[in-house]
Design goal:
Blueprint: E1 2-10, E2 17-25, E3 31-40, H1 43-49, E4 66-74, E5 86-90, E6 99-103, E7 107-108, H2 116-120, H3 123-136, E8 144-147, H4 153-164, E9 168-173, H5 176-185, E10 189-192, H6 198-204, E11 211-216, H7 222-229, E12 230-238, H8 252-256, E13 260-263, H9 271-284, H10 286-290, E14 298-303, H11 307-316, E15 322-326
Parallel strand pairs: 8-9, 8-11, 9-10, 11-12, 12-13, 14-15
Antiparallel strand pairs: 1-2, 3-4, 3-6, 3-15, 4-5, 5-7
Helix pairs in contact: 3-4, 3-9, 6-7
Length: about 325
């Protein structure tokens, strides 16, 4: 059976966006077809649109890495889901549409009381934070954590998740208003990197050589500052380099403090790896989502046809939390 679909297409000549239509076949074994109610926007989408982040060969060429909605059809072998169930999912591309396919292992229930827009803000950020702070950096209760880009979708969830799991969380953001909001979400201190040098501010707060885990999406000139602030045996994890991939760095602190420097992208990891992340999230984080201890922050919702405006808004950096599309 084929299903008519509306989706956002990229014009290869000028990278403009338009609504297009096609048909989507029934889901393959192990897949779930979702009637999309909302889709999350991620910076990776902007890079893909610009031609700088091509999707894997087996992925949909359509942008969109996370959705929420209801189950429309089940592929063979799918268990635990029924047609009509509310669902949110990490897709393998294809989220900017009114229908999307997701592997069963990357599908999650919608936490109690959460709207479809709130649920669409979860999958990419949840998996990114879980993998990098808790799997790669192995954050332990009582450790000090510094999260850069705290006002992003990843940052707003990361501050809450690390705090809820016993971390002493610090963060950076680009305005006093955002910093105040992040402290309300659980950050011990939030530093406005536009009005102060966060390394100096952290040092004055007694944090120099005491930060155990750093999650950084900035890169560039932040790289040296991270090395200087990290505690002995500290772990620094990079998930993006918005401020630049290149920097002149003195790596002496890496040796003297026995630091671990690592990084990752979520999309490049296997379905099996993402399935493990989803299972661990359901065990450790979902109870906190269900009882409202952790809540996604949604900044603004755009209609699907206004996706170009949504991209411009993300590029401006004015948002606090996630930007959502509604088909």
């Amino acid at each position: 059976m084929s299903h008519p679909r509306r989706y956002i297409d990229i014009n290869p000549e000028d990278r403009s966006l338009k609504v297009a239509t096609d048909t989507l076949a029934d889901p393959a074994p192990g897949q779930i077809l979702i009637k999309v109610a909302a889709a999350g926007i991620n910076r990776a989408d902007l890079l893909q649109r610009a031609g700088l982040y091509p999707p894997p060969e087996d992925a949909s060429p359509i942008m969109g890495l996370e959705v929420s909605g209801t189950v429309l059809a089940l592929g063979d072998g799918v268990e635990g889901w029924q047609v009509g169930d509310p669902i949110c999912a990490l897709t393998h591309g294809g989220g900017y549409a009114d229908l999307a396919i997701a592997p069963q292992g990357q599908c999650l229930p919608i936490p109690g009381g959460l709207s479809m827009e709130g649920a669409a803000a979860l999958p990419e950020a949840l998996l990114t934070v879980w993998h990098n702070i808790f799997q790669r950096a192995a954050m332990q209760p009582g450790e000090k954590v510094l999260i850069h880009g705290g006002a992003s979708g990843i940052g707003t969830l990361g501050v809450q998740m690390a705090s809820a799991m016993g971390g002493e969380v610090y963060t950076t953001a680009g305005s006093d208003e955002k910093c105040a909001a992040l402290e309300a979400l659980g950050a011990r201190r939030a530093f406005n990197y536009k009005t102060q040098d966060f390394e100096t501010a952290c040092s004055e707060a007694g944090l120099r050589d005491r930060i155990n885990v750093i999650l950084d999406l900035a890169g560039g000139d932040f790289i040296q500052k991270n090395l200087n602030l990290a505690a002995p045996e500290g772990r620094i994890v990079y998930i993006a380099f918005i401020r630049g991939f290149k920097a002149e760095v003195n790596f002496a602190p890496l040796l003297l403090k026995r630091l671990t420097l690592t990084g990752s992208t979520l999309r490049a990891q296997s379905f099996a790896q993402k399935t493990v992340m989803c299972e661990e999230l359901r065990q450790h984080i979902y109870p906190l989502l269900d009882n409202g201890s952790i809540k996604p922050v949604v900044d603004r919702v755009f209609e699907l046809a206004d996706v170009a405006k949504a991209h411009d808004y993300m590029q401006s950096g004015a948002h606090m939390g996630k930007i959502i599309l509604r088909p």
